[in-house]
Each structure stands twice: as structure tokens, then as C-alpha cells.
Amino acid sequence: MEKSIFEVVTVHKVTDTPTPGIYDLDLTLRINGVEERFEHYVSTPDDSIGANPAIRTWMKQHPDFPVQSYVPPTTEQVRASLPLLTTRRFRLGLVKNGFTPAQVAAAIETMQEGPEKEVAKIEWEYATTFNRAHPLIDLIGTALGLSDEQIDAMWSTSADL
Fold it and tell me: Which pLDDT score, from 0 to 100, does residue 159 have?
């Protein structure tokens, strides 16, 4: 098997991460003669595999290249990045946190009659996955007396069920 040759063609942006010495790069690499753009290449100081040695060499040769400051994600961005939950995981997460599927159905039944209630029923009964950013999640969470932070915590633990 032939060893790949990596060359840094253009570095578009370098951004700090929360971990010192680790950077997120937007760059174009030439890999065995073929150029490819990588918008999020994470470079660590001790990684000696793949393109990282070429990137670290480039960084040493360009010490004055501007490094953008790390900006932590917003709460909304973190929520949007939470994984989809299967119906099984979602419902097990509810039960493990002291709620029953019947309580969710009852909360939906308290909604005002109309299309929104019918959509909520369909989502609850037939969805195969649940998205943390879906409006139904906040609606049900509120009906169950949960804060956004409690829903986030339940969501994260349910992803591992």
C-alpha cells in the first residue's frame, strides 16, 4: 500500500478550541495530487498520522497567521447538535426520569382543538425519531413542568439507553 502524500495548499482560517494547542482549521489540502477542502480539520500537537504533520509544519512556518478566538456554542447550537432519539430511547428516557407515555398523551390532549393538536398527536404516536429542537419537545416539557435544562439533561442521558 502506497503512503499518502499530504500538502497544505491554502489555510483559510485557524480557530482556537477550548483545549490549548488544539486548533480547528478551514484549509485546502493536496492529497496524492488531488485538492480537497476541509472546513473543520482538528489538529492536535502530537498527532503523527494523516495530514496533521504537514499542517503542523505549515503552522510552524507561518507563526503570524491569525488565529481566531474560540467562541463557545450558544445554548441553541448545543441543543441543535444533540442526537436524534429513537422512539424507544425517547420513551425509556421519560420512564427513567419518572414520566409515563400516558402523561405525554394527556398533555397533548389538554391542547386547544385544532390542527396543532392533531399534528402533536401524530408526532407523538407515529414518529420514529425525536429531535430536541422540535417544538413538541418544549411543549411537552412545559406541560410536565420541566425546564429547558432538565430536558437537555434527560435528552443526553436518553441517548445512551
Answer: 92
Spatial distance between the Cα atoms of 161 and 74, rounded to a whole number of angstroms: 26
Using an 8 Å Cβ cutoff, are 103 and 144 in contact? Answer: yes
Measure the CA–CA gap between 18 and 21, rounded to whole angstroms.
Answer: 9
CB 87 within 8 A of CB 160: no
Which of 72, 13, 56, 4 lies closest to 34, judged by CA? 4
* SS3 label, residue 95: helix
Q: Which positions ≥6 away from 57 have C-beta within 8 Å?
A: 8
In DSSP notation, 39-70 reads EEEEE-TT--STTHHHHHHHHHH-TTS-EEPP
User: What is this structure's pTM?
Assistant: 0.67
All residue ranges of the chain with pLDDT < 70 are 1
**Looking up cell 493536496, which residue turns up?**
30
